[in-house]
Design goal:
125 residues, mainly alpha, 48% helix
């Protein structure tokens, strides 16, 4: 219900706004400061727009796997499908809890190399 802004005589009068939402209840802090993190699906476009990759390069291969996935704009589920593994397995690889072995290690290495070897992000999609 909107508060009335006119009195009985039809002239504007002061009204009580105590029940109206304030700025702090309308928007979250991230929305007020415009510092929200872009979704992973936007990263390929951001990299193309900037003309360079702003992401830090990974130090170990688990970090490089996460960075490669982020550069491609893929979710963990989409990456797991591409690699032919379960999402839980990929999560353990990315956290550094496990390392792939055998043919899965070769797939993961090719996945990372396909991104790191590209000079333009458009060629990786």
């Amino acid at each position: 219900m909107r508060p009335s802004v006119t009195g009985t005589t039809g002239s504007p009068r002061a009204t009580s706004f105590k029940n109206l939402p304030t700025e702090t209840t309308l928007r979250s802090p991230a929305e007020r400061t415009h510092r929200s993190k872009p979704g992973i699906e936007y990263m390929p476009g951001i990299i193309r727009f900037l003309g360079y990759n702003p992401l830090p390069s990974g130090n170990d291969w688990a970090e490089r796997l996460v960075v490669s996935r982020t550069i491609l704009g893929l979710s963990q589920m989409e990456s797991a499908v591409r690699l032919g593994v379960d999402t839980g397995t990929l999560g353990r690889w990315e956290r550094g809890e496990r390392k792939p072995a055998g043919r899965l290690a070769a797939r993961a290495a090719r996945f990372i190399a396909s991104v790191e070897g590209c000079s333009e992000i458009g060629a990786t999609a």
